[in-house]
């Protein structure tokens, strides 16, 4: 009888200890939900982004003791298939899994849906709020008329990048005709509108000989589009295409021999550099943040080397992911807890020096990161870190200070009481 009671006590204590351990383990992680395409035509972009987030969390936070004196960051992927509808399904799943922070970047159409959903969820569920860190969806509306307290953008928006690109075109007298081509959704439309507006002001003598949108992720062969571009007599092309749409556009341009400068937002994804090869040398321009060639700091050089050693045939293509992870970790430590309201307030106005040595500020007025950006050129000269094992990479051609690209906002931020 006594033995039976003792055994029962041991079992009860074991169960209690098990529950306590489980609770401790749960408290030892902060879950980050990566909601981006992991299947379909843009799977390569999403899978690469997930690796870059996971590596940054492990290498720059977890290996250094985590946040809050020992709490680890745990990144989990949720496949949104570049669909706003599917992204909302995955958001609900992530919330159910205990995710505190979601990160997303591919497709401003998805971003617009997510920012609305997060705001509604947080209003209705004040005890289960989540934070939305946007690392690459650059529709200007997201930090203007659609801004909200829970959304933070770590990439320069489409207008900021267009300021830099059009300044470059302005300085080139040989470019008197430009063709604009992009994906038919909010981001593609924002790029086209900014190009028309800014070129009209900076180069009224320049003619826009084409302004065309195509279905996103549907075009396999861009030959008909490139044929029209070539026939137009364009001396340069502006495109916001990304992922498979950038790869296929570049391939068609190579095949047809369209030998004009391409001003791009996303000619840095895996597979694009190899596709461009020698045909893209000196004529493919990219506007982005960070600095790989040359690497501006030993810390970034070491980080990139370690990433490429772990993920064979992969490259750091989205420097902003590193900034997102490091600034989130700093905000959590500054907040001193995992309360989303406190983390958001800690992010507002944060000044931060990136791993590449750039000074950036998360503007409190609209949650848009103010940062210097750079224009790079596709080449095989002076390449420290090539891409796709091709011998080609993106080398810095011009640095653009914050003052040249920072734009005013129409955001009227509503903060929780």
TrEMBL record:
UniProtKB keywords: Amino-acid transport, Signal, Transport
Cleaved signal peptide residues: 1-26
Domain Leucine-binding protein: 29-376
Superkingdom of origin organism: Bacteria
GO biological process per UniProt: amino acid transport
UniProt record similarity statement: Belongs to the leucine-binding protein family.
Protein name per Swiss-Prot or TrEMBL: Leucine-, isoleucine-, valine-, threonine-, and alanine-binding protein
Organism: Oceanibacterium hippocampi
Lineage of source species: Bacteria, Pseudomonadati, Pseudomonadota, Alphaproteobacteria, Sneathiellales
